[in-house]
Each structure stands twice: as C-alpha cells, then as structure tokens.
UniProtKB/TrEMBL annotation:
<keyword id="KW-0934">Plastid</keyword>
<dbReference type="InterPro" id="IPR016117">
    <property type="entry name" value="ArgJ-like_dom_sf"/>
</dbReference>
<feature type="binding site">
    <location>
        <position position="474"/>
    </location>
    <ligand>
        <name>substrate</name>
    </ligand>
</feature>
<dbReference type="Pfam" id="PF01960">
    <property type="entry name" value="ArgJ"/>
</dbReference>
<comment type="pathway">
    <text>Amino-acid biosynthesis; L-arginine biosynthesis; N(2)-acetyl-L-ornithine from L-glutamate: step 1/4.</text>
</comment>
<keyword id="KW-0012">Acyltransferase</keyword>
<keyword id="KW-0055">Arginine biosynthesis</keyword>
<keyword id="KW-0068">Autocatalytic cleavage</keyword>
<feature type="site" description="Involved in the stabilization of negative charge on the oxyanion by the formation of the oxyanion hole">
    <location>
        <position position="179"/>
    </location>
</feature>
<dbReference type="GO" id="GO:0004358">
    <property type="term" value="F:L-glutamate N-acetyltransferase activity, acting on acetyl-L-ornithine as donor"/>
</dbReference>
<comment type="similarity">
    <text>Belongs to the ArgJ family.</text>
</comment>
<comment type="subunit">
    <text>Heterodimer of an alpha and a beta chain.</text>
</comment>
<dbReference type="InterPro" id="IPR002813">
    <property type="entry name" value="Arg_biosynth_ArgJ"/>
</dbReference>
<feature type="site" description="Cleavage; by autolysis">
    <location>
        <begin position="254"/>
        <end position="255"/>
    </location>
</feature>
<comment type="function">
    <text>Catalyzes two activities which are involved in the cyclic version of arginine biosynthesis: the synthesis of acetylglutamate from glutamate and acetyl-CoA, and of ornithine by transacetylation between acetylornithine and glutamate.</text>
</comment>
<comment type="subunit">
    <text>Heterotetramer of two alpha and two beta chains.</text>
</comment>
<feature type="binding site">
    <location>
        <position position="244"/>
    </location>
    <ligand>
        <name>substrate</name>
    </ligand>
</feature>
Length: 474
C-alpha cells in the first residue's frame, strides 16, 4: 500500500496553512496516483530524486528542540541515498534507498504484529535478536516480499550480503525493509545491479536524505522526513527520521516503514526500550483504514558520536530528554502518515484526558480515531458527536459516562455525560474548513479525573479510498 518520503528542507519550513493550500492545488492539478515531477534512474542526480514528490507537512509537538534540515543524515555519522532501480511495476519514481552509519550504531527495531510477517521482518528480527549494532538499512519499494516462503527469505539474505560486500561489512550489519505488493518477491536482479550506483550516491547531505525518503514511498502523495536538534545533558544532539505510509495503516503498526537516526550515546538495552516507547506513542497511535500490514518496520540507529554523556539508565535526566525528542520526531512522522491517508482530505487528532493512566487514554483515543463511522462523518462534515461517544465507549476502558466530555475543536458538544445545545452550522463549517485546507480536525475527550492522557491520529474516509484500493494491483 502506501508509503512516503521527503523533499527539500525549504518546503518543510513553509508556514503550515500556506503549505497545505499550495499542496492542495497540486493535488487538484494532478490525479493522486499520477503525481510526479521528473523521471529518474540510477544515473540521476540526487537533487532530481529528492524532488520527485513534495514534502509532507510536519506537525512537531512543542518542546525544547529546533527543527533542522537533513532528515536521516542530520545526525553525525549517517549517509543516505535513493534512486530508481527498476523495481516498481510502472513509472520511474525512485524505489531503492540506503542509509548507512560510519560506525557501529546501536540498533533497535519494532515490527508488525501480523502473523504473516514479511521476509525482511523475519530477517531483521533474527539479526537483532543476536546483534546489538548495525551499519546499514536497505529499503526497496515495489515488492513487499511477504508471503513468499523460503525463497523470499533467501532473497533477503542475498541482498544483505551483497550490500555488506560492497561496503566491506558483515552481512549481519545490514538490515532490510521492503514495501509494495504482498506475494511478490523482490526483483533481485534489478536490485543487485543497482547497488553499486546506490552506494556511489551515498551522501551526508539533505539531498541524500530526501532522495532516500522519496524512494521508500508507494501510494504516498508526499514524502515524510524530519530532523531536530536538542540538548541532552548539555550537549547538542540530533534526531532525524524518514517514514512512508498512506494506506493499510492501523496500530501494531501500519503499512509503514521508518528509519530513525541519532548521534546520542546510549546503551543497547536503554535504546531499545526508548524506541519501543516512542513507537507506542506515535506509529502505534495512527490509523487510516483498520488494516495492519505484513511489513511494518521501524529501525532506529544511534551512532553515539555527538560527544554527549552516555545514557545507561532510563531514570536519568539525559534519558528523559532524549526520549522526549525521540517521541517528537516519531509523532511528527506518524501524523504526516495519517495526514497523507489514501483519499483523505484532513487529519483527525483525538486527544483524551482524565483516564487512569496513559495506556487507557491511548486506547480510547485509538478507538475513536479508528471508527469508520467517525471518519465518514468527518468526511461528510457532519458533527455527529454520538459516534465519538460510541467509539470511546467500546474501547474496552471502563469509565463513568456521567463524566464524559466531548468537544470538536473549541465547540463543546457534551459535558458531564449530558448533550449540550451547540451551533450545528458552526461545527459543520469547522469540519468543512479543515477539509478545504487539508487541515486538522481536533476531537477532545475527557473520561474522568485521572492523570492519564493520550493521543491518536487518523484521517477522514472518502470515496477515493475505495477507488484507490479497488485497483491497487491492476
């Protein structure tokens, strides 16, 4: 299904509303699945690859960080590249990406919970069960290499070995991610032929990161990439990332791929716990259509060469600072995936407060964001708050309905379990404005007086979603 990547850092810095208006006009001017800027091949320049599709708006939460250019190459020690290697069924959008680290990077991975896990997922799990570090991540679009049996798994091993040989690494230093059509093996010959050119293009520049982010997309209309700089223990540290995703998006995780990089110094056990926490607060809190993919993968690499103090305890101030920054990057990417949902006209952000704990709040938020009826009502610009109440109620989290409070943006719809009179036209106009600008619909829910709070993100459900997925392989 869908994926995404990045464009120029200049596009990302455009004010949010103007960016959306500009992007909306580009959608209107071109069919969703036909959007492209230029044809590229393994002889292309990095700049051409990086500008194939526009950049997604990035919705970073506020915090003690500054957004910087560079994506996955913003952190010290990382390089990236992307090119067209002939893996896609049609078109010449870049389809092969590589991210490398100059040193052994502490590695963490979070993967799909789907029992029919793709060959690259099985491979990465087996590698990270043994190894604590990695040096490279190779990503292909076009074929998911899922449900392909032993032959598909052997393809992954051969591709990892080929990258390792060219980079003079061990095979276990190379991790693999794939996206595309389930049941199709990687076009291995085309991939292997493209590897020398891909490696020659490796660069620590923003263009390298952008080209890689474009190459991992599938039905994405925009590429998703972001990087931030913050202080950890008084030392400047950078965290960057790229992701893809647009359809088959649902918690645990989604049809999404991601690579996150940092130059912070952190031990393996702490880093893996931090990455899992960040994924639970971001990629596991987005939904487009209720389908969980076979290929979902997030690989996070920490080079440790920023000069920061080593983080060896989750209870340290430095760990808290890095966790907050990691959460912000992943949430920014996750929200861009939901914003770019197939056929979507707006992002839906559900915020829940008053729960007993964070897990309960997150569960209620996810339930509402996942509701097809809520999503359809938003697309129809219908302020049908009863569907929101219903979605909160079947989340599996006990609460007193007499404490339920619901607001749509600034418009209070229910309080103390009682429906309130409200301006229905104003509420409908709020939804219309979000749809017209590809903006954000905010749903605020309170279920009690607890300290637990959480968020989830989704998008509206339009007619175009069915059109896109009815002809996905044809």
């Amino acid at each position: 299904m869908a994926a995404c990547s990045l464009h120029s850092s200049i596009s990302i810095r455009v004010p949010q509303l103007n960016h959306k208006k500009l992007f909306k006009s580009s959608i209107n001017a071109s069919p969703r699945r036909g959007l492209r800027v230029c044809a590229v091949s393994n002889n292309t320049t990095m700049l051409e690859a990086a500008t194939y599709i526009p950049a997604a708006p990035i919705f970073l939460p506020e915090g003690p960080w500054e957004q910087v250019p560079g994506g996955v190459t913003a952190a010290k020690g990382f390089k990236a590249a992307g090119l067209y290697g002939g893996l896609r069924a049609k078109g010449e959008k870049p389809d092969l990406a590589l991210v490398t680290c100059d040193v052994d990077a502490v590695a963490a991975g979070v993967f799909t919970m789907n029992v029919v896990a793709a060959a690259p997922v099985l491979y990465c799990r087996s590698v990270l069960d043994i190894a604590k570090t990695a040096r490279a991540v190779l990503i292909n679009a076009g074929q998911a290499n899922a449900a392909t049996g032993d032959l598909g798994y052997q393809d992954v091993i051969e591709c990892a070995a080929a990258v390792a040989k060219l980079l003079q690494l061990r095979s276990a230093d190379v991790l693999i991610e794939s996206t595309g059509v389930i049941g199709q093996r990687i076009k291995k010959d085309a991939l292997l032929k493209s590897l020398p050119s891909l490696i020659r293009l490796l660069s620590s520049t923003t263009e390298g990161a952008d080209a890689a982010a474009v190459a991992i997309t599938t039905t994405d209309l925009v590429c998703k990439s972001v990087a931030v700089e913050t202080e950890v223990g008084g030392t400047k540290v950078r965290v960057g990332g790229m992701a893809k995703g647009s359809g088959m998006i649902h918690p645990n995780m989604a049809t999404m791929l991601g690579v996150v990089t940092t130059d912070a110094l952190v031990t393996s056990d702490v880093w893996r716990k931090m990455v899992k926490t960040a994924v639970n607060r971001s990629f596991n809190q987005i939904t487009v259509d209720g389908d969980s993919s076979t290929n979902d993968t997030v690989i996070a690499l920490a080079s440790g060469i920023s000069g920061s103090t080593a983080i060896s305890s989750l209870d340290s101030l430095e760990a808290t600072q890095l966790q907050a920054c990691l959460d912000a990057v992943m949430q920014g990417l996750a929200k861009s995936i939901a914003w770019d949902g197939e056929g979507a006209t707006c992002l839906i952000e559900v915020s829940v407060t008053g729960a007993k704990n964070e897990a309960d709040a997150a569960k209620v938020a996810r339930s509402v964001a996942s509701s097809s009826l809520v999503k359809a009502a938003v697309y129809g610009r219908d302020p049908n708050w009863g569907r929101i109440a219903c979605g909160a109620g079947y989340a599996g989290v006990p609460f007193s309905q007499n404490e339920l409070r619901i607001a749509l943006g600034d418009i209070l719809l229910m309080d103390g379990g009682q429906p309130l009179p409200f301006d229905r036209n104003a509420a409908s106009d709020y939804l219309k404005e979000a749809g017209e600008t590809h903006g954000t619909v905010e749903i605020h829910i309170s279920i009690g007086n607890g300290q637990g709070r959480g968020q989830a993100w989704g998008c509206d459900l339009s007619y175009d979603y069915v059109k896109i997925n009815a002809e996905y392989t044809t």
